[in-house]
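Look over what follows to help learners.
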Amino acid sequence: MDFYLKSAAAVFLVSVISLIGIVTVGMDQKKLSRVVFWLVSLSVGTLLGGAFFHLIPESLELSGSNTDQTWFGVLGGILLFFILEKIIHWHHCHHLPAGACRLHQIATVNISGDVLHNFIDGILIGGSFLVSPELGVSTTVAIALHELPQEIGDFGILIHAGYSRRKALGYNFLSALSAFMGLFLVFIFRQGAWQVNEYLLSVTAGGFIYIASSDLIPELQKERNFWRSFFQLVCIGIGVWITIKLA
């Protein structure tokens, strides 16, 4: 019983980080727009850094000598999110203007990637508490530190896509709660959950690479001012640096 309570509490605490966007509630719309400009750039860095310095190395470590499994997973993740975006376009965008449709796709695909990522975090936290409470706590702290910049960026993406602050906070929190599904998987299958995680890590990495490269970077390319473009690059670099430090 102690294992269930501690791991559930840890997952809940990590999920609450998704509400970090609440700090913007007091901002006026003009100031929020300026902040979102940098948050989208930060998100590109955290997505790419998370994929290349966190998810892929962890997947390679789990796969051992069978590294092809990881790279097929990354490629599969890229194609999976490409197909997902196509489905969103076919089913939801035929009544929307082109610009609104594009932003709707970006938001939906990003939420999907976040759901998968948080699902994996739930497995990691639950599996760590299975080994020992000490490992569970250290894993929870590491994931919380890693999630903070990620959730800030996710909030910025949803605001950029036209969501109200309340909706952006709500969707961010709901996607964070998918960590409980990963934890539930550990409750049911115990050690077998790690085998599922081995495949999901590389697929999620492919999804992160797709979202950053196909959806967010083209949005940043619309900026033509030299100095704002320069600071975009700085924010991307900061995002990558944060994930390296926290990997």
